[in-house]
Design brief:
Helix content: 40-55%
Number of helices: 5
Distance between the termini: 25 Å
Strand content: 15-25%
Oligomer: single chain
Largest sheet: 4 strands, antiparallel
Mean pLDDT: 77
Structural class: alpha+beta
Shape: elongated
CATH class of the largest domain: Mainly Beta
């Protein structure tokens, strides 16, 4: 992203314009594979339990029950964590930057930020029947630096958020122009008034 590292949430002087979460189709893959693995695990335990009961291996009765309970709890927790992560994983747009928050309940708390002043262009990529039918896609953010474009994938209603991002970016440009205009006007006065205007930025 534009700035990497441990980045704090929006600062006090920043105003949050809007935020959005990734499209629900992003979670189809882990949920689908989760159910697939769960089905395979269930078949495995049914076969293993039948073998234990058939050969009357009494030593494994308690061990088998304990194993089934532990694996079932881990599976359910992992599946529900994927659903809970939907609410933690979001993109926050303030009046000065874009904050991409990637957070899980315990294991991850990453934040990336893109300064609005470093954004050169924003575009939408929505390929395929499914993405256009369900109205999601990717936002391609081209930076003015030599860094490669940044992609925000699985954005719901990407054209709507494209317009909102462009609007926030235009407002940021107007604010900077107004500040520069104030500096130019004050620079024609006394040096003290010019320094006071610089301190306010």
């Amino acid at each position: 992203m534009g700035e990497r590292g441990s980045i704090t949430p929006p600062l006090k002087y920043e105003g949050i314009e809007f935020f959005f979460r990734r499209h629900w189709t992003h979670f189809l893959k882990p949920i689908f594979f989760g159910f697939l693995i769960g089905t395979m695990g269930l078949l495995f335990f049914l076969i293993l339990g039948s073998v234990i009961i058939l050969f009357k291996i009494t030593f494994f009765y308690s061990f088998f029950a304990f194993l089934v309970i532990i694996i079932s709890i881990l599976y359910i927790n992992t599946l529900y964590l994927q659903i809970i992560n939907y609410y933690f994983d979001m993109v926050i747009v303030t009046d000065s930057r874009i904050i991409v928050s990637r957070k899980t309940v315990f294991l991850k708390n990453d934040n990336d930020a893109i300064d609005l002043t470093k954004i050169q262009d924003i575009g939408v990529i929505a390929h395929g029947f499914l993405s256009n039918y369900l109205n999601y896609g990717a936002l391609m953010i081209t930076l003015s630096t030599a860094m490669p474009p940044v992609y925000l994938n699985f954005v719901p209603n990407p054209h709507y958020y494209l317009e909102r991002l462009n609007r926030v970016k235009r407002e940021q440009i107007l604010k900077r122009q107004e500040r520069r205009g104030g500096l130019v006007a004050n620079s024609q006065g006394t040096p003290e008034s010019y320094l006071q205007s610089v301190d306010k930025l």
